[in-house]
Amino acid sequence: MTKQTQNPDAILAQYADGPAQLEAAIAGLAEAELDLAQSADTWTIRQLVHHVVDGDDIWKVCIKAALGNSQGVFSLQWYWDVPQDTWVERWDYAGRAIEPSLALFHANRRHVVQLVGRIPDGWGRHMLIQWPHRPEAEPITVGDVIEMQAGHTLHHIEDIRAVRQTHST
Question: Domain range for residue 112?
Answer without folding.
Answer: 8-167
